[in-house]
Amino acid sequence: MEVTKSDRQRRLLEIISARRFETIPNLAYELGVSRYTIMRDLDEVTSIASFYTVPGRYGGGVYAVDGWYYSRTYLTADQEALLRTLLPGLPPEDRKTMQGILNTFAKPMSRG
């Protein structure tokens, strides 16, 4: 049975999420594709995942951003932007609640 592109990309995200780090050669081997295919897949899934790549032989690879997990649901960029726009105009007690929502559901961003 042939693995579809979407199945492979889902598995790629599951691996990165679970392991928090993996090298591109290991991902390519495990998923049975070339390193170039893995790099293309990573480019294609950046809108739904928070990871960063580090070049180099030692320490190079794909790292999950702290706090990001594939199985978790996050706000879209537009949803987060709207909530952040509304935040300053809220009463203090509602501002605290809104900040909690943002802290919980905003997708973590790479600091790298």
Give a description of the structure.
- It is a single chain.
- With 112 residues, the chain is mostly helical.
- The radius of gyration is 17 Å and the shape is elongated.
- The longest helix is centred in the N-terminal third of the chain and has 15 residues, at 5-19.
- Strands 1-3-2 form a 3-stranded antiparallel beta sheet.
- The model has no long low-confidence stretch (mean pLDDT 91).
- It folds into 2 domains: 5-64, Arc Repressor Mutant, subunit A; 73-112.
- It is 51% helix and 9% strand.
- Helix 2 (24-31) crosses helix 3.
Summary of the model, kept short:
The protein is mostly helical.
Summary keywords:
112 residues, mainly alpha, Arc Repressor Mutant, subunit A, 2 domains, 3 strands
Work out the number of β strands.
3
Q: Name the CATH class of the largest domain.
A: Mainly Alpha
Spatial extent as radius of gyration = 17 Å
For the biggest sheet, the summary is: 3 strands, antiparallel
| Low confidence ranges | none
Query: Can you tell me the number of structural domains?
Result: 2
Could you please say which CATH topology of the largest domain applies here? Arc Repressor Mutant, subunit A
Give the topology string: H per helix, E per strand: HEHHEEHH
Fraction of residues in H or I helices? 40-55%
What structural class do the secondary elements suggest?
A: mainly alpha
Mean pLDDT: 91
CATH superfamily of the largest domain: Winged helix-like DNA-binding domain superfamily/Winged helix DNA-binding domain
Give the neighbour order of strands across the main sheet.
Answer: 1-3-2
Distance between the termini: 38 Å
Continuous helix count:
5
Percent strand equals 5-15%
Shape assignment: elongated
What's the CATH architecture of the largest domain?
Answer: Orthogonal Bundle
